[in-house]
Amino acid sequence: MYSDKVLDHFRNPRNMGEIPDADGVGTVGNPVCGDMMTIYIKVKDNRIADIKFKTFGCGAAIATSSMTTELAKGKTIEEAMKITREDVARDLGGLPPVKMHCSNLAADALHAAIKNYLEKGGKK
Ligand code: FES
């Protein structure tokens, strides 16, 4: 039911944790299930130099958070802003239809963290 990639990211999540002095923080809640996710970013020369996540959610949410941080790391702010919910699910080899809503959290939290960074003055 889950792809090998989903299981791998679920069992060995990349970039899990918190960045205490993050340049941008984004928290979103999933209206479907009530789960929550926070993404922290560190920005250097307009690129995402570091990124971490904390997820209170299901296995698919953990896997998609992990995948999203891998996709975003090293990207420019503009490129990271273009990462979509669909990109995350596709790069994981797909998700079961009932779990598609779980992949929304990660991309939304990433975008919220970038917006937070830009609102704080961005660009450095
Ligand atoms: Fe809540 Fe997956 S069931 S994020």
**Estimated share of beta-strand residues:** 15-25%
- Structural class designation: alpha+beta
The succession of helices and strands, N to C, reads: HEEEHHHH
Average pLDDT number:
93
Main β-sheet, spatial strand arrangement: 1-2-3
Bound molecules: FE2/S2 (inorganic) cluster
Number of domains: 1
Largest sheet: 3 strands, antiparallel
Task: Give the arrangement of secondary structure elements.
Blueprint: H1 4-11, E1 24-29, E2 36-44, E3 47-56, H2 59-72, H3 77-81, H4 85-91, H5 102-119
Antiparallel strand pairs: 1-2, 2-3
Helix pairs in contact: 1-2, 2-5, 4-5
The structure holds FE2/S2 (inorganic) cluster.
Provide a descriptive summary of the structure in words.
- By secondary structure, the chain is α+β, with helices and mostly antiparallel strands.
- It has a single domain (4-119), classed as Sufe protein. Chain: A, CATH 3.90.1010.
- It is built from five helices and three strands; from the N terminus they run H-E-E-E-H-H-H-H.
- It has helices at residues 4-11, 59-72, 77-81, 85-91, 102-119, and strands at residues 24-29, 36-44, 47-56.
- It has a three-stranded antiparallel β-sheet.
- Helix 2 (59-72) packs across helix 5.
- The model has no long low-confidence stretch (mean pLDDT 93).
- Bound molecules: FE2/S2 (inorganic) cluster (FES).
- FE2/S2 (inorganic) cluster binds next to helix 2 and helix 5.
- This is Iron-sulfur cluster assembly scaffold protein.
- InterPro entries: NIF_FeS_clus_asmbl_NifU-like, NIF_FeS_clus_asmbl_NifU_N.
- One of its GO terms (molecular function) is iron ion binding.
- Residues 1-121 form the NIF system FeS cluster assembly NifU N-terminal domain.
